[in-house]
Amino acid sequence: MSNIHATAIVDPAARIDPTATIGPYAVIGPDVTIGARTSVGPHCVIEGRTTIGEDNRIFQFASLGAQPQDKKYAGEPTELIIGNRNTIREFCTFNTGTVQDRAVTRVGDDNWIMAYVHIAHDCYVGNQTTLANNTTLAGHVDVGDWATVGGLTGVLQRMRIGAHTMVGFASHVGKDVPPFMVVDGNPLTVRGVNLVGLRRRNFSDERIAAIREMHKLIYRQGLTLEQARVAILALPQQFPGAQDDVALMDAFVAKSVAGIAR
Predict the structure, then answer these.
(1) DSSP 8-class letter at 241
(2) Taking the model in full, what pTM does it have?
(3) Would you call 122 a catalytic residue per the annotation?
(4) Residue pair 233/213 in contact by the 8 Å Cβ criterion
(5) 139, 144, 150, 197: the active-site residue
(6) Active-site pick, 122, 142, 184, 245
(7) pLDDT at 30
(8) DSSP conformational letter for 74
(9) Does residue 17 have an active-site annotation?
(10) Is 109 known to be catalytic?
């Protein structure tokens, strides 16, 4: 396979598409699958039960598929699954899952993952996210579609970051971040609605108005969270085009165990 550099160490059992590219001194383990047109940079180590889809760009010195940093891990056959068209920059570390949870760490499609990002065991990262330099996701963290997480941010284990959110630079995420919100700081503070992100994604004026109303009900009206949820569920009567956004918010809040940033 001419796309594998002569200095790369690739286990014969690895399943590598003929159109994939493996750079100098990369190490690829026996249980690794790499899809079409994915490029793996120099000195990367890809090991464990790792499946990588198509058209990904993995830059030099990344470590993907190493066993989880969890003292309970006892060698069980857990996985890392990475989708398509992701950019994974230098020195990123993604671990496989644990049997105490999903047994898989999963990264979706079209994500922009900058240098030194750590994605721990059993995390779920959706699609179209941006994780800036040194973002650290502890175990069991969920990141929704189109979320943006600022550099040097730490996310506590089992936290959830909702879709279309913006987490500011050097934040401590110790509570769930509801969809559509802008948060930052330590302790984490909700600053408002992610209007810039929503407009970039062509949200209609009606949908944005409904999302702003959800923000007011949760954060500005002095309501309990349950009272706010009841009022939010009534919003489609006024904003019928925002029905899906209302459902997304209600489902997120309903599933919160740690509580939402508030």
Answers:
(1) G
(2) 0.98
(3) yes
(4) no
(5) 139
(6) 122
(7) 98
(8) -
(9) no
(10) no
